[in-house]
């Protein structure tokens, strides 16, 4: 069930990446062809990028497509591979807890002081900052699910649910 939720977030993140490409292309045409740069594309592209990255992290962990160094793992015995997989999940989960805590502190502070972006749009800063605790909460939950599956099956999984239809 949770993989379906993170799968939907990954689809939204993919759409945001496409939107970024469209916005940047629009900006290039407006700036260099019509000599009329926009005031919103750079900030909106950055806003979409931040959200897309944090929204997709849990799904990438589930499908085992996060960055990892496998050259050592491939040479390990199954037992050591299992231990290294579990250690990686524990590390990601611990980092996620810290990121959620400080993310919430930062969001609360931004709301309290009314912090806004320094651009002409003057977007409330918490709208981008809140993506951090949301994304890392999803990643933490996914770590727990992956650790449980790893302990239950006794072997690390690779490239699970690579097919979108299987995920959602």
The gist of it:
Helix content is 71%, strand content 0%. With 168 residues, it is an all-alpha fold.
Task: Give me some keywords for this one.
mainly alpha, 168 residues, elongated, 6 helices
Order of helices and strands: HHHHHH
Q: For the terminal residues, how far apart are their CA atoms? A: 9 Å
* Total count of helical runs of at least 4 residues: 6
Q: How much is the radius of gyration in Å?
A: 19 Å
Relative strand content: under 5%
Topology:
Elements: H1 2-32, H2 41-62, H3 78-113, H4 126-129, H5 131-153, H6 164-167
Helix pairs in contact: 1-2, 2-5, 3-5
Describe what this molecule looks like in 3D:
The chain is mainly alpha-helical. The protein is 71% helix and 0% strand. The protein has 6 helices and no strands. 20% of the residues are buried.
